[in-house]
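Our working data are protein records whose layout never changes between entries. Getting from the letters to the tokens is the skill we practise here. To make this concrete, we reproduce a full record directly below:
***
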Amino acid sequence: MIVFIHDRPVRLVSLKAASPSIGSASADPSNYKAFTDYDQIVDARLDTLKPDALHGHLLVLNATPATIEKLLALFQKADASRLLSVTLGCLVKADCETAIKKPFKIIKAAGGVVVKGNKQLLMFRRGVWDLPKGKLDDGESSRQGAAREVEEETGIRVAVGERICTTWHTYALDGNPILKRTKWYWMEVLDESRMAPQEDEDIEKLAWLNRREVQLALTNSFSSVRYVIDEMGKIKSTQP
């Protein structure tokens, strides 16, 4: 599970997945080369998370629901501007996932990456490049909602293909904490004759971009959008 908190990726993985080189939960992380990918390592059994841990790429070993509560509190109170990512090696991954969802109201959404030949569709909204997505209607499947949202926001009718990934990201709505779950799909164009940005959703323009142009646009985007595009690239690289 990956949750984007204040646009910072927080990955919840099993303790073994955090570093396959660990032979046991009591292993000393300083002994393993696998840990050199991280700028800061905290063992939640031995220490509590402190504000000065929020920089670079942070690894937290032996994470529990109490660790999750502490991390969420730090995001609210501490300066996380130098933080790039957090990986939580959870003692019980399911318990950590439940704990990170608990403080939020969950909203389900769906969206897509629309492709046409060697180009992808991006939209410029509220000063950044984004992908079409939106909240599901009652009784609507993720695939149905994704196609509907794409057509509403861009005017393009699409065929919904393979699911790319699922993201979770946090935001506030009327002062209430929200966690939005979005399922993302690969889509192909069926009809773009009515292509136009949905102005009442603050979409300023739509653009078909090649791979190099997409990468440039993503420098002015969200971490979650970059993640979706990266995951789509992994799918494409495995196809014949």
